[in-house]
Amino acid sequence: MLHRLNETGGLAVSFESAERDAVDLSISGSQSENFSLWTTRSRTGFVTRPKITNDLYTIRIVESGRMVRRDLDEDHVGTSGIGMFVSFPLMRNEEASRDFRAISGTITHRRLLDCCRALEGEEVEDVPRLRPLVEMHTPPLRAFAHVFALMHRRTADISRHDDLFHPLLEEILVYQLLTAWPQISPAPRRRAPASAAYVSRAVDFIDANLAASFTLSDIARAAGVSVRSLQLGFRSELDTTPVQFVVARRLERAHADLRAAAGTGATISQIARRWGFAHMSDFSRRYRLKFGVTPSRTFRGR
Description:
By secondary structure, the protein is α+β, with helices and mostly antiparallel strands. The chain is 42% helix and 22% strand. It has helices at 2-7, 109-120, 139-157, 166-180, 196-208, 216-223, 227-238, 242-259, 268-274, 280-291, 295-300; strands at 13-16, 26-31, 35-42, 46-50, 56-64, 66-71, 75-79, 82-87, 91-96, 100-108, 133-135.
């Protein structure tokens, strides 16, 4: 099993037995050019060692058991409820205990740096130094863990190519990492500009591109501000977040299409997917919360 797994393309580490016994190991997830997500389960434990020298970072939330990460200069131990931030070039090996379970994600240095620059709206020289171990109990870290788990579930259920919301959620996850995860020597924040004008520009961009895939950094670029300023401006001017605003606008477009669907041959699922709702149960729940009726009732014209 380990031989087949280690021969699989795309894995940045090789797996070994922790105690020279047969290894029980289950890995599932998804992979893209800049960001990968996966879950790991093992009854026996295992050891991993880097097999490529990519400039990567791994975020791991341990759910059970423990993992010892041995870096070039020190060791770190992650247990249940602990988040681990791993700089891949510094890692010598990792050892998971018996009955180990964790959800993890890997992001390239370039992607993390691009998001950091978009978030702060300035020429940041490098990514911030994030703490290698954190307790996942603060509200911002719990929110990050929630989106982390949500992304795992969505990539398991829906092809990312069919999901207009996937780029937004992936980007939000990285921004949450940069803002919620404690830093070593955090940099001071700059004051945000006046918000009314750039929020109006952002709304114009969103309305013009609702049927396409876009990210928060695309909206911020069109508005001429940083992602952080964009988020603050939407909260100040509209009492909502940019993502909540996008969801509401797409629901309104879906609502209009459902009302006009008679004789067109379109189905509810086709209309939902047209506006980025690839998960029908999620679409129905959000639709009913906003309009007080189910999509099927609007579709029937009652």
